[in-house]
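Why do we care about 3D structure at all? Because function follows from shape, and shape follows, mostly, from sequence. That is the central idea of this module. The next example makes it concrete: a single protein chain, its amino acid sequence, and then its structure expressed as tokens.
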Amino acid sequence: MNKTLFQRITAALLPLIVAACAVGGSAQLTGVDERGARLAKAEAMFAERCKKAGVFIHRTAENVEGVFLMKLRPQEINHGNQYAMDDPYGRDHGGDIFVQSMLRGFNTPPSKPTAYTPLRLGYHYVEALDPKDGKRYRYTGRIEEPWRSDSRYSKDYKRFVLDKIPASGLMPRYGVTFEDISTHEERNYWIAGSSLKVIDLQTNEVMAERIGYMMDRGQGNTNSGRSPWLFAADNACPAFIATHGASGQPGQTELFTAKVLKPSLEK
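And the structure:
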């Protein structure tokens, strides 16, 4: 091929190459812009929801011995199911540990209580309906020292044990319940809403309610095993007690309830 022909072919192809590169770059920028626009809309929506979030205590009660758990937390934890309306903001201990977390003796008293490590007394008992048989049971807790009957355990080792018996008589006056208040549109943008209530079951009065929202700024990104709802807890209103949101979620039900229903100080 002579030099003149080569120059003609190059001159003819150059505009096509430049155009192709421009289109590719434009598509790439469009993708970035779309993600940015999506996040901006999510953050604006989240900011609006936070305007109605907060802890609203209308009445408190003193020296409460026990409470009725109107709902129990599931054993399974939702880390990334976008549309499962199972209250990701209200995520707490699951299964029996959720019940235990409400009882006296479960939490070790801090030597110096702070805003991040408050004194958590717990209740003498809680009651709940067993979803398996629909019957009401009373749960209590106790500290067990296995070494007293099994020499394989160290004398320093103790464990919290949950006892469960059929409940009799009147149920507790005060109940605790939760629900997911998210809408489908909010979930489209990885926003989860939650309501946690304390109710006087004799009068049906809502004594207190905490309304909370959280949003995953990664918008569902699961790269490197990332869990969207756990990361969303870092971006919550009201914020959780711990520095890192998700680590402050377990025990949040007891913490809120105790602000309203003051546990009895009697041992």
